[in-house]
């Protein structure tokens, strides 16, 4: 299997400089780039079969956290935006379970795909995680499971929707709600969102859609799954520097194991 078997390059010519520039401009302007029908039908079917088969090996957990993914600050009130807790719950299978023949593996390792992501995001280099779990993940959300409001620590994220539930699991976001580099956390804006005074944008997508999202300053969540059909989503994670690994504490929290 090669990249031509996976990506619908008639629509998305990954190596075309004009297409790359268009994607980069869209991501910079909107904070999100969604490419529907990115996967060829056979590749999507293969990935759905693979993901359903791996469901029994997923590690499921539920966590409470702040939207800033930081520890509670005892100097601030419990109901302060920095301390208010939201809930995230999901299942996950890790990189070491993803088969060498998986379309995800071929896509992740493809130089053409990495070059496209670099051109779109402005990164000079992309490297896999040094640990054996974190580069490629498949996430599962059953009925009632959700991803709570949060800002990402990384500058961008890459996801690929594999299966969509019949209701719920909406990807909601508010672009540039904070400026992390300037130290502006915008507690009032976050409070308004958590209180329901601010209505987020909703990104609609179908299986086979690739999404690049700048979540460091754009708060986002996935609402609870309201159906009995599992939401399945692949996350492709790179680093700008080689040798980076997720901490042991983070691996135990998210994956329930170190290797």
From TrEMBL:
<dbReference type="GO" id="GO:0046872">
    <property type="term" value="F:metal ion binding"/>
</dbReference>
<dbReference type="GO" id="GO:0016491">
    <property type="term" value="F:oxidoreductase activity"/>
</dbReference>
<protein>
    <recommendedName>
        <fullName>Fe2OG dioxygenase domain-containing protein</fullName>
    </recommendedName>
</protein>
<keyword id="KW-0479">Metal-binding</keyword>
<feature type="domain" description="Fe2OG dioxygenase">
    <location>
        <begin position="131"/>
        <end position="240"/>
    </location>
</feature>
<keyword id="KW-0408">Iron</keyword>
<dbReference type="Pfam" id="PF23169">
    <property type="entry name" value="HalD"/>
</dbReference>
<comment type="similarity">
    <text>Belongs to the iron/ascorbate-dependent oxidoreductase family.</text>
</comment>
<dbReference type="InterPro" id="IPR005123">
    <property type="entry name" value="Oxoglu/Fe-dep_dioxygenase_dom"/>
</dbReference>
<dbReference type="InterPro" id="IPR056470">
    <property type="entry name" value="BesD/HalB-like"/>
</dbReference>
<keyword id="KW-0560">Oxidoreductase</keyword>
């Amino acid at each position: 299997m090669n990249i031509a078997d996976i990506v619908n390059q008639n629509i998305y010519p990954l190596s075309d400089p004009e297409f790359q520039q268009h994607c980069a401009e869209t991501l910079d302007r909107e904070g999100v780039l969604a490419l529907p029908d990115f996967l060829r039908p056979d590749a999507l079917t293969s990935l759905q079969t693979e993901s359903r088969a791996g469901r029994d090996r997923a590690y499921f957990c539920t966590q409470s956290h702040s939207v800033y993914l930081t520890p509670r600050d005892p100097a601030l009130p419990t109901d302060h935006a920095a301390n208010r807790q939201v809930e995230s719950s999901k299942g996950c299978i890790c990189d070491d379970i993803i088969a060498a023949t998986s379309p995800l593996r071929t896509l992740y390792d493809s130089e053409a795909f990495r070059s496209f992501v670099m051109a779109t995001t402005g990164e000079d280099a992309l490297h896999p995680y040094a640990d054996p779990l974190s580069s490629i993940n498949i996430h599962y959300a059953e009925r009632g499971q959700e991803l709570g409001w949060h800002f990402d620590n990384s500058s961008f994220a890459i996801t690929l929707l594999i299966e969509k539930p019949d209701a719920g699991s909406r990807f909601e976001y508010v672009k540039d709600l904070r400026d992390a580099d300037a130290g502006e956390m915008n507690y009032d804006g976050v409070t308004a969102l958590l209180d329901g005074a601010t209505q987020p944008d909703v990104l609609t997508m179908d299986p086979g859609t690739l999404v690049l999202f700048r979540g460091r300053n754009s708060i986002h969540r996935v609402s609870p799954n309201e159906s009995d059909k599992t939401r399945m989503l692949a996350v492709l994670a790179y680093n700008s520097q080689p040798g980076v690994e997720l901490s042991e504490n983070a691996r135990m929290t998210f994956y329930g194991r170190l290797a």
